[in-house]
Amino acid sequence: MTDKDYDFYGYHTSNSWKVDIMLKELSIESFNYTEVDIAAGEQFKPDFLKMNPNNKIPVLVDNTISPPLVLFESATILEYLADKYKKLLPGLDRPRERYEVLKWLTFTVASQGPNMGQLLFWKIHNQEKVPAAIEKSQKEIERIYSVLDGVLKDRSYIAGSELSICDISCYGWGMYLKFGIVVDGWEVKYPNFKRWVDLVETRASFQHAVKLADEAIRNWQASKK
Ligand SMILES: N[C@@H](CCC(=O)N[C@@H](CS)C(=O)NCC(=O)O)C(=O)O
Question: For the chain, what percent of residues have pLDDT higher than 70?
Fold first, then answer.
């Protein structure tokens, strides 16, 4: 048990920024943040593996219940906090709205996230440029953002008229489009998605994540020089 309500284990990557946004949206300030340096392999340390045997951040521990509750998988963390604070996810008394959010939340972690990871690996991180792999992941990611652009055609937010945890989850990776490394001319190709980006970025919680991402990208670029 620590002195704070939550222990948040993260790193400067998309899945971690989703939790940063959520904590800000819920005005949760009583948490300890521990950076797990995944580039140095800290996610494989026995104490971390006890919390997440899948060796990945983010992890959130809720110390307000006894014994503390350990959560991993960003979608589960968002869903847990939303249910606990009754915000950003309709309750079971509104099944249609609740499962609209959960469907899109799953889409962000099952389709958007892994495919963004693949694309950045083949396009940016892998030394050897393999055209077929780049082309395949580029095509899939463009399809995924077309799907998101399509659903946003007649909605303000991804699951309807209210901000929800699927918007937070989508933005963790979605903000990379702004950094110019994912899809050329994305603002024109996905005008509804662009409008959504502008809308969520009016919120302090999302602006905070952009600041963290900008800093991470600047540090990464400096380390490559
Ligand atoms: N499905 C997981 C993915 C988490 C994930 O991929 N985390 C990455 C950083 S963004 C990580 O910890 N990688 C370390 C590793 O794979 O060893 C979630 O949504 O939480």
Answer: 100
